[in-house]
């Protein structure tokens, strides 16, 4: 059976990804408004009420701001790291107006199943502690989402090295970041080991993978500190030659990609 993937939104202002298998309709994060989620899902032939799982990477608002309202209209199981369950439950309560009981937890060391999808969390270095990104296994296919990390090491390269589809953070261009209007403390935070990967760091990570993904999707681009052109140019200047890739957008969903 095939597996389908769609980026609903990817960027510093909101993130949400859709994964579909034979037996599951899953979101990874929900940091955008419900209308955008509904519209994107409708184009994929899916109703919001069909969502049966939402996997939360961390509690920054660009990953969870839409969650509470969405849970007024659907009843999925919500998976979050065990250390942030209470924080997430409070956030949901504020937006939803009441408690939501179907929250299950994971840790950074062990994978967990949801229906026919196996989810492997991978801890990353970010200033929301803990933050985990995910490798998903389904019907022999492997997908990865690797964003919101200021640096990387051998663990991330190994875990995501054989993905057929990989969302990889390419957040900022150092030259654009240096010249924008952000205060210096924010620039330092973005550049730090607990911030976000630059275009060049993304290139270096991708060239260290065991195999290049069939679909390399550059995500979490900053609208103020990067451009799609700058990200693409970084991936066209590497010694191994131009690396095929797709830029994910902040305000538009991607086409549905199918692994079969």
Description of the molecule:
- This protein is globular.
- With 260 residues, the chain is an alpha/beta fold.
- The protein has one domain (3-259): Metallo-beta-lactamase, Chain A (4-Layer Sandwich).
- Helix content is 26%, strand content 25%.
- The mean pLDDT is 97.
- A 7-stranded mixed sheet has the order 6-5-4-3-2-1-14, covered by helices on one side. Strands 7-8-9-10-11-12-13 form a 7-stranded mixed sheet.
- It is built from 9 helices and 14 strands.
- The chain starts with a strand and ends with a strand.
Descriptive key words:
single chain, alpha/beta, Metallo-beta-lactamase, Chain A, seven-stranded mixed beta sheet, 9 helices
* Largest sheet strand order: 6-5-4-3-2-1-14
Specify the CATH homologous superfamily.
Answer: Ribonuclease Z/Hydroxyacylglutathione hydrolase-like
Global mean pLDDT: 97
CATH topology (level 3) name? Metallo-beta-lactamase, Chain A
Rough outline: globular
* CATH architecture title: 4-Layer Sandwich
| Poorly predicted regions | none
The arrangement of helices and strands along the chain is EEEHEHHEHEEEEEHEHHHEHEE
Task: Report how far the terminal alpha carbons are from each other.
Answer: 7 Å
Specify the biggest β-sheet. 7 strands, mixed
| Structural class category | alpha/beta
Number of domains: 1
Share of helical residues: 25-40%
Strand proportion: 25-35%
Radius of gyration (CA) equals: 17 Å
- Count of helical segments? 9
User: What's the multimeric state?
Assistant: single chain
What's the level 1 CATH class?
A: Alpha Beta
Total number of beta strands: 14
